[in-house]
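Progress against Task 2.4 (sequence-to-structure conversion) is shown through the following example record, which the project officer requested during the mid-term review.
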Amino acid sequence: MPLTFLHALAGGLAQLMMTFPNRSRDTTRRNLKVCFPLYNEAETARLVRLSLQSTIATVLEMGKAWLLPIKDTLALVTDSEGVDALNEAYLSDNGVILFAPHIGNWEIFGFYVSKTLSSSFLFQPPKNKKINDMIVKARSRSGVELLPANRRGVSKLVAAFKRGNLVAMLPDQVPTDEGGVFVNFFENPALTMTLASKLAAKRPCRVFYGFAKRNARSEGFKVIVKEINVSFFSDNIFESVQAVNTAVEDCIHEAPEQYQWEYKRFKKQPDGSEFY
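Structure tokens generated for the chain above:
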């Protein structure tokens, strides 16, 4: 199905979700209210609807991302920015870390940036084995090494980093208590992973972040890649991890409606209180 049809369908489904009570709508609204407190009710409601539409569009686009021949999937990208710098860093003697937050179409982003690079991606396996097997098969067809976000997977990721693979991870997933620290995300405390900061301390490396931005009028995607602020390399773990969240915020400012706001990013609070 063409992107125009998929996105129109996503718009209709999002409107239904705005009409009937559901967890995704309520979580999206809760997150947006605290991250954009100056928005009035109309502005918040509009962004809630557009965010739900984008999340649904990402799901509907999975058929193209996973099932099309890889060249046809890559052909959905009509423009790119910063990818050359990522490739140059990979060819140097430095390690390379890439953050791929939940914004735009992260599946297409992963395929595009790793098409010529030896890459290892950390991911959170679903509980359903059949779905997990389908995801692994689809994502691995471009040569990407998929590693589960557990102790064994992290050990393999460290090994891949040491041997020169590009290593990629989702920076906006809530880690375990021992795997993160609280730093600000849109001025709100959010438990954020320390893994990348600890990896960067093991060897010289360059760190990038980015996403595949959905173009207007359903005209494909633009891949955007940027290099992280130098504060990421601070010896202070809090300063380093804060740079990760600042990078995610930078992506969101590019297209706030394309971020997956329905994710419970603030479900863990420093004082143990309930946020949702």
